């Protein structure tokens, strides 16, 4: 089982510290979402994992070794950092074949990855005529040529239509189910919520959160419960007495926090109060993400201004 281990990773460009003492691991058998606003340092981190940028300090290992020490890197780690980086005049099959040959991999792998990414029918077509979604599939096919245990994708769904997004999401999940370690970056929380098992959130090059996805949703997702009853005043007093915080919602509903919907339901039964509505209110994930990263966004805004 191969994992990525990032330890105290730091990258400076001149006076700017773009990645700042970053430590996290990417475990096998799951999709790790790497989330942060634009400019947070995601791409720079991924480049350092792939040996394309040198850390100022700290280290990255893949299965215990640095990228440059891997004997045949493509068989250990596949990365899609920029799907546009293919000659438009090349045919899909030829592009993959040249990658396979130059890395000492078998030709048979080309057919296999074309089939796996649903590109068999266009293998003989020039990449220049490919849609963005097909280019992404081709980029993913290339990452799989060496059948690596570790996969890295930088913003793979950017610009794709809903069908393309869904395909990529399902594909990432199937790679993780096979026991591979999958690291995928995004600046969209909603996207990660449907794809990732684990979440590493960064802002201004630093880790803001490093947590299981379900844990993250539990802590940050549900902020209150909407309750509707014919006796709001009386039930509000019961709720307050039981330790909840209650405020008036729209159309004489109650907005309750500090108590789960199950406990509110039980309290209503205990006191014989009829409820016509009992609905957990999920703060939008995008709101949670904005809240988490607002310091780095303010910084970004100030820079842009
Ligand atoms: N080669 C470089 N020289 C100088 N600054 C750089 C270089 N590469 C990146 N940066 C700066 O580092 C910061 C982080 O960039 P990076 O691309 O890693 O962020 P990101 O989180 O991937 O964001 P995005 O999604 O916008 O690409 C940005 O402010 C960027 O301008």
UniProtKB/TrEMBL annotation:
Name this protein carries in UniProt: ATP-binding cassette domain-containing protein
Keyword Transmembrane appears in the UniProt entry: no
InterPro entries referenced in this protein's UniProt entry, alphabetically: AAA+_ATPase, ABC_transporter-like_ATP-bd, ABC_transporter-like_CS, P-loop_NTPase
Gene Ontology molecular function terms on file: ATP binding
Keyword Heme applies: no
Top-level division of the source organism's lineage: Bacteria
Domain ABC transporter span(s) in chain numbering: 4-229
Entry keyword set: ATP-binding, Nucleotide-binding, Transport
UniProt family annotation: Belongs to the ABC transporter superfamily.
């Amino acid at each position: 089982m191969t994992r990525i281990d990032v330890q105290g990773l730091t990258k400076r460009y001149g006076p700017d510290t773009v990645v700042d003492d970053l430590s996290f691991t990417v475990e096998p058998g799951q999709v790790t979402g790497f989330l942060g606003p634009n400019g947070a340092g995601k791409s720079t981190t991924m480049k350092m994992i792939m040996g394309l940028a040198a850390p100022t300090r700290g280290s990255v290992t893949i299965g215990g070794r640095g990228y440059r020490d891997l004997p045949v890197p493509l068989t250990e780690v596949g990365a899609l950092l920029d799907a546009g980086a293919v000659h438009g005049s090349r045919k899909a099959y030829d592009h993959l074949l040249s990658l396979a040959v130059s890395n000492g991999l078998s030709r048979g792998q080309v057919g296999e990855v074309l089939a796996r990414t649903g590109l068999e029918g266009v293998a003989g077509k020039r990449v220049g005529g490919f849609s963005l979604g097909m280019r992404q599939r081709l980029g993913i096919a290339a990452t799989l040529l060496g059948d690596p245990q570790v996969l890295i994708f930088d913003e793979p769904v950017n610009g794709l239509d809903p069908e393309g997004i869904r395909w990529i999401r399902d594909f990432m999940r199937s790679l993780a189910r096979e026991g591979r370690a999958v690291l995928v970056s995004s600046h969209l929380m909603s996207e990660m919520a449907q794809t990732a098992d684990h979440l590493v959130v960064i802002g201004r090059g630093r880790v803001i959160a490093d947590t299981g996805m379900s844990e993250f949703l539990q802590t940050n997702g549900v902020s209150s419960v909407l309750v509707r009853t014919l006796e709001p005043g009386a039930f509000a007093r019961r709720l307050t007495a039981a330790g909840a915080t209650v405020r008036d919602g729209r159309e004489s509903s109650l907005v309750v926090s500090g108590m789960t919907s199950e406990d509110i339901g039980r309290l209503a039964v205990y006191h014989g109060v009829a409820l016509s509505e009992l609905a957990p209110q999920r703060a939008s994930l995008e709101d949670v993400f904005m809240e988490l990263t607002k310091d780095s966004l303010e910084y970004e805004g100030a820079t842009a201004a």
